[in-house]
Amino acid sequence: MIADNSYNKNFRLLSASDFSRLKTNSQNFKSSTFIVYFRSNSDLELNHARLGISVSKKVGKAHERNRFKRLIREKFRLSTLRSLPCDFMVVVHKPYRFKDQDFSLFEESFKKELEYSFNKLASIKI
Fold first, then answer.
1. By CB neighbour count within 10 A (0-12 exposed, 13-18 middle, 19+ buried), where does 51 fall?
2. Which pTM does this prediction carry?
3. Which DSSP string do the residues of 66-125 spell out, in sequence order?
4. Letter string b/e over residues 78-114, b meaning 16 or more CB atoms within 10 A of that residue's CB
5. Nearest CA-CA partner of 82 in 3, 19, 25
6. Is 25 domain-assigned?
7. Whose C-alpha in 13, 57, 111, 113 is 20 to 30 A from the C-alpha of 103?
8. For residue 39, is it within any domain?
9. Does position 1 have pLDDT exceeding 50, yes or no?
């Protein structure tokens, strides 16, 4: 039997109203490379988490931004946050200290911060 590890539309924030609702009426968790906005979605009668991702053009070219989106989705898919009745939005921005450094260095730092943040968020009572 194969485990269902897919990431379908039910687990994504899709509409502009979902994003704006989450950005204005939520708690947030800040890192040096991203901000995670989160809020309970129990008023929408959902029993699972949804994820929205926004990556600034300052991070890099399209293939680099897409790489970050894939990393975020994969870390979210494997985290315990997926079972919480919450909406999450990750907004990625490139910090000043990585301006002239190699993309791979930025990516490695990002992965570590993302994993730490998702573990930290899992322990917060929402």
1. buried
2. 0.82
3. HHHHHHHHHHHHHSGGGGSSEEEEEEE---GGGTTS-HHHHHHHHHHHHHHHHHHHHHS-
4. ebebbebbbbbbbbbbbeeebeeeeeeebeebbeeeb
5. 3
6. yes
7. 13
8. yes
9. no
Q: Once rounded to an integer, what is the mean pLDDT over residues 24-50?
A: 85
Q: What is the rounded CA–CA span in Å between residue 90 and residue 38?
A: 9
Q: What is the DSSP pairing of strand 27-30 with strand 86-92?
A: unpaired
CATH of the domain at 100: 3.30.230.10
Q: Could you tell me if 104 and 116 are in contact, meaning their C-beta atoms sit under 8 angstroms apart?
A: no
Q: Provide the number of structural domains found in the chain.
A: 1
Whole-number Å distance between alpha carbons of 103 and 62: 13
β-pairing, 50-55 vs 34-40, is: unpaired
Kind plus residue range of the DSSP H or E element containing 19: helix 16-24
Do 13 and 87 form a contact (C-beta atoms < 8 A)?
yes
57-92 confidence digits (pLDDT tens): 887 889 888 988 998 888 888 888 888 888 999 998
Helix (H) / strand (E) element for 29: namely strand 27-30
- The pair of three-digit structure tokens given for residue 3, joined into one six-digit string: 């485990």
